[in-house]
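How it folds
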Amino acid sequence: MNSLWNDAEAAQFPGELGQRVYTSRLLGRDQSLVLHGGGNTSVKITEKNLLGEDETLLYVKGSGRDLEFIEAAGFSPVRIDHLLKLAKLRQLSDPQMVNELRTHMTKASAPTPSVEAILHAILPYQYVDHTHADAVIAITNTADGLARIREIYGDNVVVVPYVMPGFDLARRCAEQFAADVRKNTIGMVLMNHGIFSFGKTAQESYERMIDLVTWAENYLAKHKAWVLPESNEKPEAKPLLRDLAALRHELSLTAGFPVILAAHEDAASLAFARRADVATISQQGPATPDHVIRTKRVPMIGRDVNVYAEVYKKYFNEHAPKAKEPKTMLDPAPRVILDKEFGVVTVGRSAKDAAAAFDIYAHTMEIAQRATLLGGYKALPAKDIFDVEYWDLEQAKLKGGGKPPPFAGEVALVTGAASGIGKACMDSLLARGAVVVGLDINPAITKLYSRPDYLGLMCDVTDETQLAEALEKTARRFGGLDMLVLNAGMFPPGRRIDALTTMEWDKVMRLNLDSNLMLMREAHPLLKLAPNGGRVVVIGSKNVPAPGPGAAAYSASKAALNQLARVAALEWGADNIRINSLHPNAVFDTGIWTEEVLQARAKHYGLTVEQYKKNNVLKTEVTSRDVAELAAEMCGPLFAKTTAAQVPVDGGNERVI
């Protein structure tokens, strides 16, 4: 641990709440302390209320807020006098507690306070920090963790045996703290949960956290349990796309909805998945109970989804009857998979969920290995994990996202995606919740977006090897393929047949026709395994039903592609793959419509460029977004029973009509 405190930075966060924001962000920068909304911080501030009376408020992190990016508005101001009264109650249910927290805030717009607000209130310090430090958890999660913690810290910390977060934990901490606090106490360790620090200032509380965690790191180093052995494990050289797609198909059926898979083949992940004792070390449970909502209690080893689901159902049936209130079983699909070929595979309803599961499990792997070197990794009993997994307050965090978007958990691939219709198609699919892979020969495709649900690959779609590599990368990044938008193409300058060279003809055919045949052929095994059925949208052309002079190569290539799509519809229907075509015309915000081509076509028809842009029955201009929105809808439920359709997007073309 190193303190990240910087006087110049700190000066930019004035006031007690400002300082709280600053040090909260410092904690959030270090993933070995907090991950994905974990941890919480608070500050006690005396302010004048509307009546001019002094009132002490606890500004505590709002539930689910990420410390790394928190703003002042992310803290919930709660009247501390009421919290201290609540702490004296003999019992308080979770719904009652949340109601009391919310109804005693001074800002209606503030987020729901952390469930540990009462715990923060009873600690007699202005600033309180709470993290799930990896080093501390690695020590607590051993058979003799309690003795080791006391050896490290003595009476510098109050040690509290594990109690489930919430009101009962706050009461237990209050009792333990009152009994064990000493002059030199600067923190508190919650076994199998995390560590607290506190102080008179934000800097003091923050730097005490750094010191306390450093002591744990030094202890691990002293016992040769800090530096993990380096690994030179290498990923499989053979293609894994079909195996990953088959696994994703099974997982989606088990979960009851499409899921995203992310295969992690870094040396550390492969080494852990290939450990001789992986069946023992990985099946103990999560590092801290709250991780269970992201990772399930244990990962799946290997690929037998049915066996994992049956074991999960037994786990639920064993513990649900002992719960205080009735529970409805969550889906039994794993969220983490350990496999000798795949490495560590994480599963989620979205790419963000799958990424969060890996972030958490990557730290869990380190914690488990350090605890093993210290004598043996030992997580909490399954009952304690179940109580958190099915805790109403934790479930509320997951349900807070509302109804998932229509393409949640599905993977789309778009060709010619760096601009024009292709880029617009990606935007429309992303907006509907799909993860999207964009292919383009333009290197700009790789940096078009920076988000977990996007993968941009520079690819010459006329090259079979590059196409195969792109599909392999798609499967390893997201698990498979559900939707394919065939958009890449070229519209060469106008050329009459008597002036058309064989070389130009071949070039157009290679891109507009042959590349699509190759991609369809290679993608078919993945589309066949799409949980909701595969979907292909072909971006055709008005020139299919109504070709124009000077466009022989383009018109013939698009007509042949249209015929290919019709045959595919016949052949692939039995595989639950539907394929439909769009025939746009005069979409001028695309790459193929260079100024030269536009002027040439307008001149051919005796029109100005502006007249040519709206030369249709409706006298309207057709944009890339117009085409993209219909392409996305063709992948959705409105077209669920339609295949081999050809739909014009042209404002009404007299020759087509």
Summary: The radius of gyration is 30 Å. The first strand starts at residue 40 and ends at 48. The mean pLDDT is 95.
